């Protein structure tokens, strides 16, 4: 099944007022298509892996796909080796990345997606770990992973759930933009694509397209940030 | 100058509508008192250490204290060894902790505070690094420290800038309480004191008192969270 890299990187699993993955279900159906029958689900980002897998399974069955939880397999690496498609769900990014390393599947997922063309869907934390590193996650560092380097399916970073400043807030914590600016004060840091809730990035080979209903904001070290509308061609991000 | 441990752990450097450290300046004066003449300031949490030290110096001079920036000293460990008092300012907690390790001052600060009774003030990130670990920071993991273990001046963790859920928000990222709950899903995790902006913890030997103008919320693994009013005696946190 060798083919070009195919990724669907979703900002958020649930959009306000909707159910789990409702807002992107048409994108999911279009992305996995009719050839995929079973999706390997990685529930490592949440504590209760069985309950999380049931949530994903129930949703994906309504779209015509069977779901296998990677934690249900006797050998996680073997499960990745025979996967038709992979979906890594959201939750805590640190817990997720640590579990990916603990189960030794980071490089095998990378190989399957980049060499074998296995379609990869990520949501929230599952989108973070698909990039160069988890340096731009919003999550609390509840566990210590052996590295912040991630699967590296794209050569930039993503900030999911990207949030504009609230002008009425009295809270003095840093805005999201300030946090990403702090990241870019560090040397040799890559672009960060801020995906607002409701947006997602579709990557097919060397073509990247912004999908969904909200705009995205791109942060490049040493340059002003830029807004992109849904439908924008962001393929240039793949050639850095 | 041996004496009991003395800590002033402030949630936030700036309160909405006020200037830098304005909201806690009386607490600072009372904490350092008249015996302290010079405060060793650690500006590692922000990128521009000179500018940050100037901000701290200007403020502390109005309170009658001279400030030395640790990065101005030829030998940071030596600067800690001869410090009369230490203040670690806020910014990015990951950058701060990594710099503390890079400069090999973590254990020396611990020794000076716990063995020599050198007064320690922290604000925001400087409060995070004074606890067991930085596992409950709110900051973006822009750099990878060699450990999340921190200076360990108290046997619990703190979440600075603690924030109540906003019932009007449509944003679907986890609330602060959900994040701390995820931390407590991990085994053997300590109490987390959520310090709202405007609050601070004063530790004198084995006595801990909540100061400031806002309540704090205490999260204990496996138990309901509890609210504490300013003035509350939280000494029990020191004996876990």
TrEMBL record, chains A, B:
The keyword Cytoplasm does not apply. One of its GO terms (biological process) is proteolysis. CDD domains: GAT1_Peptidase_E. One of its GO terms (cellular component) is cytoplasm. SUPFAM superfamilies: Class I glutamine amidotransferase-like (SSF52317). One of its GO terms (molecular function) is serine-type peptidase activity. The keyword Hydrolase applies. Signal peptide: none annotated. Keywords: Hydrolase, Protease, Serine protease. Belongs to the peptidase S51 family. PANTHER family: ALPHA-ASPARTYL DIPEPTIDASE, PROTEASE S51 ALPHA-ASPARTYL DIPEPTIDASE. NCBIfam families: PRK05282.1. This is Alpha-aspartyl dipeptidase. It comes from Dicentrarchus labrax. The gene is si:dkey-69o16.5.
């Amino acid at each position: 099944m060798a083919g070009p890299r195919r990724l669907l990187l979703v900002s958020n699993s649930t959009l306000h007022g909707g159910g789990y993955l409702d807002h992107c279900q048409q994108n999911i159906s279009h992305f996995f298509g009719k050839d995929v029958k079973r999706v390997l689900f990685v529930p490592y980002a949440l504590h209760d892996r069985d309950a999380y897998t049931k949530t994903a399974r129930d949703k994906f069955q309504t779209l015509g796909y069977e779901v296998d939880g990677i934690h249900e397999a006797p050998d996680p690496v073997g499960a990745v080796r025979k996967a038709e498609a992979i979906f890594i769900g959201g939750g805590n990014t640190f817990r997720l990345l640590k579990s990916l390393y603990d189960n030794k599947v980071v490089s095998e997922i990378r190989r399957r997606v980049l060499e074998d063309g296995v379609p990869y869907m990520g949501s929230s934390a599952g989108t973070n770990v698909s990039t160069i590193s988890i340096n731009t996650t919003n999550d609390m560092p509840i566990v210590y992973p052996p590295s912040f380097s991630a699967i590296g399916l794209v050569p930039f970073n993503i900030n999911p759930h990207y949030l504009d400043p609230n002008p009425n807030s009295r809270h003095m914590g840093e805005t999201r933009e300030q946090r990403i600016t702090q990241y870019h004060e560090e040397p040799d840091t890559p672009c960060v694509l801020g995906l607002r809730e409701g947006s997602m990035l579709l990557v097919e080979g060397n073509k990247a397209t912004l999908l969904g209903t909200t705009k995205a904001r791109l942060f490049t070290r040493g340059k002003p940030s830029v807004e992109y509308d849904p439908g924008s061609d962001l393929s240039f991000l793949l050639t850095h």
